[in-house]
Amino acid sequence: MTSQHQNTPNREQILRAPKVLLHDHLDGGLRPATIVELARQTSYAQLPETDPEKLGIWFREAADSGSLERYLETFSHTVGVMQTREALVRVAAECAEDLAADGVVYAEVRYAPEQHLEGGLTLEEVVEAVNEGFREGERRARANGHRIRVGALLTAMRHAARALEIAELANRYRDLGVVGFDIAGAEAGYPPTRHLDAFEYLKRENNHFTIHAGEAFGLPSIWQALQWCGADRLGHGVRIIDDIQVAEDGSVRLGRLASYVRDKRIPLELCPSSNLQTGAAASYADHPIGLLRRLHFRATVNTDNRLMSGTSMTQEFVHLVEAFGYTFDDLQWFTVNAMKSAFIPFDERLAMINDVIKPGYAELKSAWLFQQTASTSGSVDSEG
Ligand SMILES: [Zn+2]
């Protein structure tokens, strides 16, 4: 029997496929059991559950409420247990390990150093602890037969006034584990233009940054992030769909901003499951990623917050394969898009694409082809 989805990868194949992740929050990806242990060790008494399994469910349900503000509330607990050097090293190491076990070969993981100072750490000590954890996680992954490279993005919070200080920190630790800068937090009422000094500083330093924009908020936020702040990538950017009109006959018209984003190949860090939880899309099949992929925007697939969404890169790809019938070629396209859009130097991105990603997909596709040949000859035998 043939089907148009016969080239559709299954979960096990997707798990083995090399994947690249550009938008993942360190404080949104803790293992529930680690939160419980760290809470005990650091005398954090505010957890809503102390059974790891129940706690994991609590996070997903709280994040499922449909509001970005409520979604962001869940972070008080994860950030609450990440206030010591040991906790940060552990969380970062487990993050790298978990991503590697999920088949991620390159990741840029972000966090806001200013949120980890309650235990007396300095901004520098926070960055160094997380870097140490990532290196430890990479080592443990290698010992388990997985290879991953993790770079850090330093995030400044939109509602705070430390963006320039964090941008300077990102610049100081450039080439020392930090690959760029980000700005995050609730979009409404806090336009990125509040932090122009930080973006102008980074541009003068030839450094890279992404901005959370066009998630809960629409086109003005995307426009500001690009045309006022000069963002290299858009964190989410999913509302660019508001500037695209699809007529009844299927013809598509792009507005000026959507055209600009596509023409300039501006990477969209799309996070399907997270968008469903915050109400930015009604279902996977309705998620704008389908149209954006068809129109050849520089679309990438990301997890955002693995704990709150109960997801992984494999899981995100599984959802998209189910919703859109994506093939190995589509998954490779998203992965190459992400690698092209990473903040590490061009030659290193190219090497990852040519030496890791393309061979990885070629192997999976050839295994699939031989499997097909085997099952085809099997059916001929049974008929003849
Ligand atoms: Zn995010």
From TrEMBL:
It comes from the Bacteria. Coiled coil: none annotated. Belongs to the metallo-dependent hydrolases superfamily. Adenosine and AMP deaminases family. Adenosine deaminase subfamily. Its cofactor is Zn(2+). The active site is at E215 (proton donor). Catalyzes the hydrolytic deamination of adenosine and 2-deoxyadenosine. The keyword Lipid biosynthesis does not apply. HAMAP family: A_deaminase (MF_00540). Binds 1 zinc ion per subunit. NCBIfam families: aden_deam, PRK09358.1-2. InterPro entries: A_deaminase (IPR028893), A_deaminase_dom (IPR001365), Ado/ade_deaminase (IPR006330), Metal_Hydrolase (IPR032466). Keywords: Hydrolase, Metal-binding, Nucleotide metabolism, Zinc. The lineage of its organism: Bacteria, Bacillati, Actinomycetota, Actinomycetes, Kitasatosporales. This is Adenosine deaminase. The record marks H236 as: Important for catalytic activity. Its EC number is 3.5.4.4. Substrate binds at H25, D27, G185. GO terms for molecular function: hydrolase activity. It catalyses: 2'-deoxyadenosine + H2O + H(+) = 2'-deoxyinosine + NH4(+); adenosine + H2O + H(+) = inosine + NH4(+). Residues 18-358 form the Adenosine deaminase domain. Gene3D superfamilies: Metal-dependent hydrolases. Zn(2+) binds at H23, H25, H212, D304. The keyword tRNA processing does not apply.
